[in-house]
Amino acid sequence: MLSIVTLISGRGSNFEAIVKTAQKEAWPVIFSGVIANHSAAKGLDFARSEGIPAFTVEHRAHATRESFDEVLIHKIDQLGADLVVLAGFMRILTPQFIRHFEGRLINIHPALLPQFPGLHTHERALEAGVKTHGATVHFVTEGVDEGPIICQASVPVLADDSADTLAARVLSAEHQIYPRAVKWFLDGRLRIEGNQVKLSPPEPQFFKYE
Ligand code: GAR
């Protein structure tokens, strides 16, 4: 049975969507642990309520990113992760961490990459006046938000949207596509070719939500 370790920084709703889909569809998977970078992350409560081991590695207790990431690597390895899922993990990871887990480290980003890498994506989408926004699940490589794309979901931007209403629409799309991407990985259906991800057998990797 494959093992998933999830890293979170906050609410953990994507983590929850993945766990609930796994339960509903009876995936042969073990959620070996959830790690947050501070103890107030709400998602830790959900993990505990599901009996999933919940840990905190306080980033503030570390003088450097390197020493924080070393502890994280050790913890994730102890848990025996086949797949590391970043679900709203708001720390930039060191090249050392990324190389250690390369090919089994995935992230969800709240924008249609390569549009709007980085932070405050919903505000920036509204400022740019785009008509379509969305979310991207991708393998993590050393360039921030640049790795091979596994799948994407688009949502419309409405005339009266605020950053909050847009974020909520994107988040509900995230909850649809992140579990799908994780399942594809677990089923061994993803192959990285250059900066592309091939899904076999093929099926659409772009989802349009109206
Ligand atoms: C999600 O919208 C996710 O895409 C975003 O943080 C939110 C976490 O929500 N991630 C990033 O911005 C990563 N740079 P959640 O804790 O409820 O899953």
TrEMBL record:
<dbReference type="GO" id="GO:0005829">
    <property type="term" value="C:cytosol"/>
</dbReference>
<dbReference type="Pfam" id="PF00551">
    <property type="entry name" value="Formyl_trans_N"/>
</dbReference>
<feature type="binding site">
    <location>
        <begin position="12"/>
        <end position="14"/>
    </location>
    <ligand>
        <name>N(1)-(5-phospho-beta-D-ribosyl)glycinamide</name>
    </ligand>
</feature>
<comment type="pathway">
    <text>Purine metabolism; IMP biosynthesis via de novo pathway; N(2)-formyl-N(1)-(5-phospho-D-ribosyl)glycinamide from N(1)-(5-phospho-D-ribosyl)glycinamide (10-formyl THF route): step 1/1.</text>
</comment>
<dbReference type="InterPro" id="IPR001555">
    <property type="entry name" value="GART_AS"/>
</dbReference>
<comment type="function">
    <text>Catalyzes the transfer of a formyl group from 10-formyltetrahydrofolate to 5-phospho-ribosyl-glycinamide (GAR), producing 5-phospho-ribosyl-N-formylglycinamide (FGAR) and tetrahydrofolate.</text>
</comment>
<feature type="binding site">
    <location>
        <position position="107"/>
    </location>
    <ligand>
        <name>(6R)-10-formyltetrahydrofolate</name>
    </ligand>
</feature>
<feature type="binding site">
    <location>
        <begin position="90"/>
        <end position="93"/>
    </location>
    <ligand>
        <name>(6R)-10-formyltetrahydrofolate</name>
    </ligand>
</feature>
<dbReference type="InterPro" id="IPR002376">
    <property type="entry name" value="Formyl_transf_N"/>
</dbReference>
<feature type="domain" description="Formyl transferase N-terminal">
    <location>
        <begin position="4"/>
        <end position="182"/>
    </location>
</feature>
<dbReference type="GO" id="GO:0004644">
    <property type="term" value="F:phosphoribosylglycinamide formyltransferase activity"/>
</dbReference>
<protein>
    <recommendedName>
        <fullName>Phosphoribosylglycinamide formyltransferase</fullName>
        <ecNumber>2.1.2.2</ecNumber>
    </recommendedName>
</protein>
<feature type="binding site">
    <location>
        <position position="65"/>
    </location>
    <ligand>
        <name>(6R)-10-formyltetrahydrofolate</name>
    </ligand>
</feature>
<dbReference type="GO" id="GO:0006189">
    <property type="term" value="P:'de novo' IMP biosynthetic process"/>
</dbReference>
<comment type="similarity">
    <text>Belongs to the GART family.</text>
</comment>
<dbReference type="InterPro" id="IPR036477">
    <property type="entry name" value="Formyl_transf_N_sf"/>
</dbReference>
<feature type="active site" description="Proton donor">
    <location>
        <position position="109"/>
    </location>
</feature>
<feature type="site" description="Raises pKa of active site His">
    <location>
        <position position="145"/>
    </location>
</feature>
<dbReference type="InterPro" id="IPR004607">
    <property type="entry name" value="GART"/>
</dbReference>
<keyword id="KW-0658">Purine biosynthesis</keyword>
<keyword id="KW-0808">Transferase</keyword>
